[in-house]
Design a protein that fits this description.
Blueprint lengths: L11 E2 L2 E6 L12 E8 L2 E8 L1 H5 L3 H23 L8 E8 L9 E8 L3 E2 H8 L4 H20 L2 E2 L8 E4 L4 E4 L6 E2 L20 H4 L7 H22 L3 H7 L14 H19 L7 H14 L10 H4 L8 H27 L2
Helix pairs in contact: 4-6, 4-11, 6-9, 7-8
Length: 353
C-alpha cells in the first residue's frame, strides 16, 4: 500500500503544485525514506524531496525519530549553505511540513525540502546518454572540487560524494553537489556522528574497510572527500570507483574480508595495488599527453591508501598538513579548458575533411 509521501501527485504544498513523481533509470540509487517530485510555483520548476514517515515507522518508533532528526539536520546544513551562498551546493528554496490527510495524523505529516531544479545526476547522464567528452568530465571534476573547497572552508565535509550526488544543470553547463544528509560538520550535531563512516560504504576509502579510522578531521573527513573526488576520475573514465580498482589488484589474502592484521601492515600491499590500478587507468584516459599525465598524478595522490599521504604533496608539507583540494580545483579547471581547445581543433579538422 502506498504511503502518504508516495501519493502527493496533484497536491498543492505551500503554493507548490506537485506535477509528477520522479521516475527511475538503470543504475539509479534510491533515497532513504524519501520520495522525489517535480513541482511548480509561479512558473518555476523545482524538486521536492518528501520524507516518508510511514516507511520509517515500519522499522519502529526509534527509526521514525531518527528519520525526523536526519531531515532536520539536512535542512539546517542546506539552509546554512544557501545563506552562505555556496555556489557549488544545490540551493534549498524552501522547507516545511505538510499534512497530507484532512485529519491531523502524525503518519501523514510530510516533512519536505524544495530545491532548485537540476536536469539529473552525472550517473544518469552517462547511463542514459552514453559516454561524454573529456571536457565535460573535467568540468565535473572541477565543479566538484569547487564545491568541496567551499564546504571545507566552512568546516563541512560532504562524506558522500558519488556520481548520483553530482547534479547537472544543462542550461548553465554547470554541476553542483547535492545530498548533504551524511555530511560531517563542526557546526551542527548529526544523527550519524557516531558512525565511523556516514556515507555510502561501498565508496569509502580503503582504511575504513580494514577497521582503521583516522582521528583527525583533516585526514579522516577532508581526506575522505579527497578520496571520493579522486574516485570520480576512475568512474568518469572507466565506470568504476577507485576502491574496486585497487581491490582487483590485491592478492586474496590482503583483501578486506580476508585480512586479519593491522592496517599499517597491509598498507604496503595496498599502495602496490593502487599503483598498478593507476597504471591500468592510463589507456582509458584522454590521448593528450599532458592531460593524461596530470589526471594520473591527481588520481594517484587523491586516492592514495595512506590517509597521511593523500592529497597534493606540496600542500601536505605545509603547516597543518592540509589536503590541498584548492590546488586540484585549479588543476581540473585548467585541464577542462585545455580539453575544450583540443576538442574544437579536432572538430574543425573533421569538418574540413
Amino acid at each position: 500500500m502506498a504511503t502518504a509521501a508516495e501519493m502527493l501527485h496533484g497536491k498543492v504544498i505551500n503554493g507548490w503544485t506537485v506535477i509528477g513523481q520522479l521516475g527511475t533509470y538503470v543504475g539509479m540509487s534510491g533515497g532513504n525514506f524519501s520520495t522525489g517530485y517535480q513541482v511548480t510555483k509561479e512558473g518555476k520548476i523545482a524538486f521536492l524531496k518528501a520524507m516518508d514517515i510511514q516507511n520509517a515507522f515500519v522499522r519502529g518508533i526509534g527509526a521514525m525519530g531518527e528519520a525526523i532528526n536526519q531531515y532536520l539536520f539536512e535542512r539546517d546544513v542546506l539552509q546554512f549553505c544557501s545563506d552562505a551562498r555556496l555556489s557549488g551546493i544545490i540551493t534549498l528554496l524552501e522547507s516545511g511540513q505538510f499534512d497530507a490527510s484532512p485529519q491531523a495524523n502524525p503518519m501523514t505529516t510530510i516533512y519536505y525540502l524544495v530545491f532548485e531544479w537540476a536536469d539529473g545526476d552525472i550517473r544518469r547522464a552517462i547511463a542514459t546518454g552514453g559516454d561524454k567528452a573529456s571536457s565535460w568530465k573535467l568540468r565535473v571534476l572541477h565543479k566538484s572540487a569547487v564545491a568541496l573547497v567551499q564546504l571545507h572552508s566552512n568546516d563541512i565535509a560532504h562524506q558522500d560524494l558519488k556520481p548520483s550526488n553530482v547534479l547537472e544543470f544543462n542550461a548553465k553547463s554547470d554541476f553542483k553537489l547535492g545530498d548533504l544528509g551524511r555530511c560531517r560538520t563542526k557546526r551542527f550535531v548529526a544523527p550519524t556522528d557516531a558512525l565511523d563512516y556516514p556515507g555510502d560504504y561501498s565508496y569509502a576509502p580503503p582504511e575504513y574497510h580494514y577497521g582503521e579510522v583516522p582521528t583527525s578531521f583533516v585526514n579522516g573527513k577532508i581526506g575522505s572527500d579527497a578520496y571520493l573526488l579522486g574516485s570520480l576520475i576512475s568512474f568518469l573514465y572507466t565506470g568504476l570507483g577507485a576502491l574496486p580498482l585497487t581491490v582487483f589488484n590485491l592478492p586474496q589474502a590482503y583483501q578486506p574480508k580476508a585480512w586479519q592484521g593491522t592496517y599499517r601492515d597491509v598498507l604496503p600491499f595496498l599502495v602496490r595495488a593502487h599503483t598498478d590500478a593507476t597504471e591500468q587507468l592510463t589507456n582509458s584516459l584522454p590521448s593528450e599527453a599532458r592531460i593524461r599525465a596530470e589526471l594520473l598524478e591527481a588520481y594517484f595522490r587523491l586516492c592514495h591508501p595512506d590517509p597521511e599521504q593523500r592529497g597534493h604533496p606540496a600542500a601536505r608539507m605545509q603547516s597543518g598538513t592540509p589536503i590541498g583540494l584548492d590546488r586540484y580545483r585549479s588543476i581540473f579547471d585548467r585541464m577542462s579548458r585545455q580539453a575544450e581547445v583540443y576538442e574544437r581543433i579536432e572538430a574543425k579538422k573533421a569538418s574540413n575533411g
